[in-house]
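Structure (tokenized):
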């Protein structure tokens, strides 16, 4: 799917590269990379990302506003569960620009739009959970397990995603030497955007990652997802080992 988030995507890789440059203080080079991402974007999701990072990088408020409104226009064209979680952030950023430009009516309007999208979860799935555990249809996955990333941490929530390849990555990263399994799951209670990924590096919750403190019921299993290579897995493990900051549990 053209509008499904993929960490291997060329534009996503450019945005990650630009962010790394920003973190190292290489702002001029980062701006060049973000502009390259915008110029080379070919679908609405790529254009949304390119415009968003161009907006973040602007010093001039009017330019920042123009790029954020461009990003919003592509998000509205997509208007599916991959981008809806970004609307609060987009409208808030646009409102702040108007506020800085002393356009208070437009600032107020966009802050209200941001508030109207907060807490709204429309994703109907299907949902997936990746693990190395041998489970069966009807089994319940419950919170309280050890974190795959911080072994000393007991998780207060159970995590899942609407992207089957994301669940496949989670299965690859899971502890143990059993085969990787991706189960189709149904939440038995309310769920929320995973705050560990939402509005962090990327706007909103592009990975459609969620969590719940209620069990997930296994309703099936899938075997068709894109496996990552051993080299890619090692890079993910190193990236997670070097990740600064705490898990929001």
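Design, position by position:
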């Amino acid at each position: 799917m053209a509008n499904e988030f993929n960490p291997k995507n060329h534009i996503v890789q450019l945005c990650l590269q630009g962010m790394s440059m920003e973190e190292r203080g290489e702002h001029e080079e980062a701006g060049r990379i973000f502009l390259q991402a915008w110029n080379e974007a070919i679908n609405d999701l790529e254009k949304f990302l390119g415009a968003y990072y161009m907006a973040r990088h602007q010093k001039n408020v009017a330019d920042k506003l123009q790029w954020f409104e461009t990003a919003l226009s592509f998000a509205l064209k997509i208007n599916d569960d991959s981008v809806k979680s970004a609307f609060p952030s987009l409208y808030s950023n646009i409102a702040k620009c108007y506020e800085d430009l002393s356009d208070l009516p437009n600032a107020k309007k966009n802050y209200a739009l941001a508030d109207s999208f907060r807490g709204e979860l429309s994703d109907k799935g299907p949902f997936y959970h990746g693990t190395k555990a041998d489970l069966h249809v009807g089994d319940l996955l419950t919170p309280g397990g050890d974190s795959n990333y911080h072994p000393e941490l007991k998780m207060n929530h159970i995590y899942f995603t609407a992207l089957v390849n994301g669940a496949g990555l989670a299965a690859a990263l899971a502890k143990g030497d059993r085969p990787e399994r991706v189960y189709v799951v149904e939440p038995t209670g309310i769920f929320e955007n995973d705050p560990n990924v939402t509005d962090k590096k990327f706007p909103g919750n592009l990975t459609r990652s969620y969590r719940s403190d209620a069990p997930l019921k296994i309703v099936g299993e899938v075997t068709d997802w894109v496996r990552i290579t051993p080299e890619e897995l090692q890079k993910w493990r190193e990236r997670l080992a070097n990740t600064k900051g705490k898990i929001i549990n």
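Reviewer-requested clarification: The radius of gyration is 19 Å. The first helix runs from residue 10 to 23.
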